[in-house]
Write a structure and sequence with these properties.
126 residues; mainly alpha; globular
Amino acid sequence: MCIRDSPNYFRRVYRYTFLLCRMQGQRNVNIELAVEQWQLFFTSENGGVAWETRSVPWLKWWIEFIETKHKRPINKDLWEQTEVLMRKTMEDESMDWWSSDAAWPGAIDDFVDFVKEKQGATAMQQ
């Protein structure tokens, strides 16, 4: 069974990976290791799901955001909600589903703002 073909299997493997990536005695995963794992899980050439849509390179922007704006280790909640965010953005890249009142981790709220800024800059360049 290929993980990209089964969302439930993908989710189980993805969530288990967080436990494997934590250093002993730590509650978080360091950014470098999280980025390496996201590049495996969220690119099709590595056997994962390609996290990109017609007009948004989601994975590229997510990693850029994490490395330049977030700059903190990745906790379990953010790890798990990143996979949910990936699914939502793949269903609707316009983010019409987004609500600031929803219970997303603060980093994802900040990422949505980051994406809107990027999209605004891209629109202005065209």
